[in-house]
Amino acid sequence: MVSAMSSRGARRSSRRAGFTLVEVLVALSVFGVGAVGAVAAFALAARLVREVGVRDAAVRTAGAVADSLLRLDRPGSGEWKEDHLLARWSSSSPERRPTPVDVVVEYGAPADRRQLHLRFLHMPAPLRLEAP
């Protein structure tokens, strides 16, 4: 009698010792959903980092163009191109007075072009009067 009870108990404990197929499938599906979510988050983060890098290059280009135009007596108009950046600038008045200058930098891939607009006031250097 004792041996029959112990063999029944051994069978019951051996049935509970592992995972059922349903439990394994549920665990794998939960893990799969989490892994897909993590991969999607990394892909989004990589795209955003790339966009920020391109936008940063456009801002630095606009700043460099503005700095170089501020050194001129009359800024005029023109354009500059490098890789995926195109900078254009124009001033509305060729006279020696405070002149608004517009700088537009186009950046990004050809399928997704964006523009950065910068407008500033160009102040020419004051005229020097020399004594006779």
Secondary structure elements and pairings:
Blueprint (H helix, E strand, L loop, with lengths): L1 H14 L5 H50 L7 E5 L2 E7 L7 E9 L6 E9 L10
Antiparallel strand pairs: 1-2, 2-3, 3-4
Give helix and strand order, one letter per element, not per position. Answer: HHEEEE
Mean pLDDT: 85
What general outline do the C-alpha atoms trace? Answer: rod-shaped
User: How would a crystallographer describe the biggest sheet?
Assistant: 4 strands, antiparallel
Classify the secondary structure makeup into a structural class.
alpha+beta
- Low-confidence spans: none
- Radius of gyration over C-alpha positions, nearest whole angstrom: 35 Å
Question: Helix coverage percent of residues?
Answer: 40-55%
Instruction: Count the beta strands.
Output: 4
Strand content: 15-25%
The largest sheet has its strands arranged as 1-2-3-4
State the end-to-end CA separation.
Answer: 132 Å
Question: What's a concise summary of this model?
Answer:
This protein is an alpha+beta fold and 132 residues long. 48% of the residues lie in helices and 23% in strands. The protein has helices at residues 2-15, 21-70, and strands at residues 78-82, 85-91, 99-107, 114-122.
Describe this structure in words.
The chain is an alpha+beta fold and 132 residues long. The protein is built from two helices and four strands, in the order ααββββ. The chain has a four-stranded antiparallel beta sheet, covered by helices on one side. A hairpin with a 2-residue loop joins strand 1 and strand 2. The protein is rod-shaped, with a radius of gyration of 35 Å. It starts with a helix and ends in a 10-residue tail after the last strand.
